[in-house]
Amino acid sequence: MKQSSNSIIIQYAFFTAVATTVYFLESMAVRALPLPFLRIGLANVVIVYLLLNKSFVFAFTVNIMKTLIGGLISMTLLSPATLLSLSGGILSLLVMWVLLKSKINFSIIGISIAGAVVHNIVQILCVRWLIIPRDSILYLIPVLMLIGIATGFVTGIIAYELSIRLEGNKECVKQAV
Question: How would you label 22-43 residue by residue, b for 16+ Cβ within 10 Å and e otherwise?
């Protein structure tokens, strides 16, 4: 059954609002930490959910809007943080989509881990290219990959559980393990 344009707009608005709220709250919470650039990426649960249950375009649009609106609300829109978030978010979403569409049956958790690791690597490469033009910054890549594995695992589990609860059955999502 085809959805009305109003229904689609409401869905975009709802998922953008949820993702932006989580993005903003997480960005405020991590400012108190000694390493304020380390985030779990809980807003990406929404993006992974949308990629699995809606479409790439839906997930892409909400991802961009989450970053831009979140940057505007947190007053970081014109900072390098927004560019880093956009670059990591776009490329990680693309990698997750390719894995989802591949003939290999990647789990939600595996797709989420890959997205988190790619997000971190892209961000550190952008930092090297735009902010700190020293190769020594690249020594952080192994640490950021480990962090990406941990955070991707957490967001993957949450996205899996969210998919089951919102879609009502386990057949709507790929096998978790």
Answer: bbbebbeeeeeeeeeeebbbbb
CA angle 110, 114, 120 (to 5 degrees): 145
Q: How many CB atoms lie within 10 A of CB 90?
A: 16
Distance from C-alpha of 151 to C-alpha of 133, rounded to nearest angstrom: 27
Q: Tell me how far the alpha carbon of residue 105 is from its chain's centroid.
A: 20
Segments in 77-107 forming alpha helices (H): 80-101
Mean pLDDT of 138-144: 93
In this prediction, residue 152 has a pLDDT band, given cuts at 50, 70 and 90, of very high
- What pTM does this model have? 0.88
CB 176 within 8 A of CB 163: no
The string of DSSP letters for 15-31 reads HHHHHHHHHHHHHHHHT
The rounded distance, in Å, linking the Cα atoms of 90 and 85 is 8
Structural domains in the chain plus CATH codes: 5-172 (1.10.1760.20)
Burial of 52 (0-12, 13-18, 19+ CB in 10 A): buried
Angstrom CA distances, 145 to 19, 126, 131, 176, stand at 23, 15, 20, 21
**Mean pLDDT on 99-116:** 94
For a pLDDT cut of 90, what percent of the chain falls above it?
67
